[in-house]
Amino acid sequence: MRPHGGQVNRTCGEETQAGVTASARGNARGVSWAWQLGAACRGLPSSIFYPADDERGNRRRRRELRAKRICAECPVITDCLRHAINWPETQGIWGATTARERASRISNGNSRR
Ligand code: SF4
């Protein structure tokens, strides 16, 4: 598992199968992570989904586009986006959305994909 945004579950990164399996059973908040087992981003570097501290402009847009293309082929995109809005995940690309796009959906009352 890889820490980010104050929590430790993410499908991409170098987590072990055991780590994902353990998190798939749920956590202290009663959230199931089983959907992550089918994620297209498993094993991919989290740097695709999260910005570097100094990332701006076109570099940031290119990385986000790359991540969104991976998400577009992901079989659990709906579960991922639902999780990211409900948790909420405040950083990174989840379910083919940026944190800013998710915040906008939440503020508009349009949290369903
Ligand atoms: S939708 Fe994107 S971020 Fe979510 S699990 Fe799939 S590939 Fe990973």
TrEMBL record:
Residues 1-25 are annotated as: Disordered. Its main location: cytoplasm. It is found in: Cytoplasm. [4Fe-4S] cluster binds at C41, C71, C74, C80. Its cofactor is [4Fe-4S] cluster. PANTHER family: TRANSCRIPTIONAL REGULATOR WHID, TRANSCRIPTIONAL REGULATOR WHID-RELATED. This is Transcriptional regulator WhiB.
